[in-house]
């Protein structure tokens, strides 16, 4: 291993990616014309698992994210996402960093949601409803608590132990936190919503508040979904639907199964550039499917923090 290379575990990777710095890195990636993100490769594996290879590069760094996604690990104590993000220096060809893949995925996804919420959420103090108490539920709690004036969180999960643990973490951060059994019933009370489930079934189908911001991150293939067609349609006809990247036009199962025109929906980049603007009223849906550029942003942030 070259002397300049570091191999970081989950804790060390998280320490290199504080959310305020990560949000700034996301903005910078979207403004950088040197950023290139080739199409990711997804290989189906026996038993329903998948192998993902996601490259990206800019003028200084090149990364390759290699992860497995194993839905059958849900509830077993083993993470659904495992793997690494390898960071190379383009000028020398040397490997600079090896980051923990699940940590990068969780933190950059939550940071993207928080970045969208900072612009689109009408009531950023919450209450925040989190559906799903796994790695993405935790990262979204942390990202929203670190970057929004959040005061209260409500947590729904199929696993009671995980929900209670996430509620305890929220209380440690000074937030009011409750575990709830019916997430649909909470839509009338929560203007901030995050769905971060394995996306093997619809978890929200009631109508959202008129001032709601919903970040749906669990479904990232055409066959997956967390939101009902009616809820997606309500957002499309109300405050609007926003995509995390152009790739979501081919991957957002919630929207595709609702029969919505994905080609019409603006991206986060358009929002931040000001070329597309939020509508005045109705619930807003931010649909996130993941993009290699977000992993590049995390790599850049990790290098800077070093």
Ordered list of secondary-structure elements with their pairings:
Layout: E1 6-7, H1 10-15, H2 19-31, E2 41-44, E3 50-57, E4 61-69, E5 81-89, E6 95-100, H3 101-120, E7 128-131, H4 135-147, E8 152-156, H5 160-172, E9 176-179, H6 183-186, E10 192-195, E11 213-216, H7 229-237, E12 240-243, H8 253-257, H9 268-273, E13 284-287, H10 292-305
Parallel strand pairs: 1-6, 7-8, 7-10, 8-9, 10-11, 11-13, 12-13
Antiparallel strand pairs: 2-3, 3-4, 4-5, 5-6
Helix pairs in contact: 2-3, 2-10, 3-4, 3-10
Overview of the molecule:
The chain folds into 2 domains: 6-104 and 294-305, ornithine cyclodeaminase, domain 1 (2-Layer Sandwich); 106-291, Rossmann fold (3-Layer(aba) Sandwich), CATH 3.40.50.720. 34% of the residues lie in helices and 22% in strands. It has helices spanning 10-15, 19-31, 101-120, 135-147, 160-172, 183-186, 229-237, 253-257, 268-273, 292-305; strands at residues 6-7, 41-44, 50-57, 61-69, 81-89, 95-100, 128-131, 152-156, 176-179, 192-195, 213-216, 240-243, 284-287. A hairpin with a 5-residue loop joins strand 5 (81-89) and strand 6. The longest helix has 20 residues, at 101-120. The mean pLDDT is 95.
Write a brief caption for the model.
The protein is of the alpha/beta class.
Q: Any key phrases for this structure?
A:
about 300 residues, alpha/beta, ornithine cyclodeaminase, domain 1, six-stranded mixed beta sheet, globular
> What is the H-and-E element order?
EHHEEEEEHEHEHEHEEHEHHEH
How many distinct beta strands? 13
Question: Tell me about the biggest sheet?
Answer: 7 strands, parallel
CATH class of the largest domain: Alpha Beta
Widest beta sheet: strand line-up: 9-8-7-10-11-13-12
Strand content: 15-25%
Tally of individual domains: 2
Helical segment tally?
A: 10
| Helix share bin | 25-40%
CATH architecture descriptor of the largest domain: 3-Layer(aba) Sandwich
Class computed from helices, strands and strand pairing: alpha/beta
CATH topology of the largest domain: Rossmann fold
């Amino acid at each position: 291993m070259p002397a300049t290379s570091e191999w970081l575990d989950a804790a060390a990777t998280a320490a290199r990616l504080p959310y305020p710095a990560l949000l700034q890195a996301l903005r910078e990636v979207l403004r950088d014309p040197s950023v290139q993100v080739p199409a990711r490769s997804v290989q189906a594996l026996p038993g329903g698992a998948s192998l993902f290879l996601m490259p990206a590069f800019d003028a200084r760094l090149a990364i390759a994210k290699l992860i497995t996604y194993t839905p059958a690990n849900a509830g077993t104590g083993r993470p659904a996402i495992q793997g690494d993000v390898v960071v190379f220096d383009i000028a020398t060809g040397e490997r600079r960093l090896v980051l923990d893949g699940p940590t990068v995925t969780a933190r950059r996804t939550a940071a993207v949601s928080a970045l969208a919420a900072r612009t689109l959420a009408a009531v950023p103090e919450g209450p925040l409803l989190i559906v799903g108490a796994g790695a993405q539920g935790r990262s979204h709690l942390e990202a929203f608590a670190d970057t929004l004036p959040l005061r209260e969180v409500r947590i729904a999960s199929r696993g009671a132990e995980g929900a209670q643990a996430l509620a305890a973490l929220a209380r440690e951060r000074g937030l009011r936190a409750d575990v709830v059994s019916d997430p649909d019933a909470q839509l009338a009370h929560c203007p901030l919503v995050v769905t971060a489930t394995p996306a093997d079934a619809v978890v929200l189908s009631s109508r959202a508040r008129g001032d709601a911001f919903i970040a749906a991150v669990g479904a990232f293939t055409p066959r997956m979904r967390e939101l009902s067609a009616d809820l997606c349609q309500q957002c499309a006809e109300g405050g609007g639907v926003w995509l995390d990247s152009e790739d979501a036009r081919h991957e957002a199962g919630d929207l595709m199964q609702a029969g919505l025109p994905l080609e019409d929906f603006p991206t986060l980049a358009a929002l931040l550039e000001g070329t597309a603007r939020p509508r005045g009223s109705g619930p807003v849906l931010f649909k996130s499917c993941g993009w290699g550029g977000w992993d590049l942003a995390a790599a850049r942030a990790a290098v800077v923090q070093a």
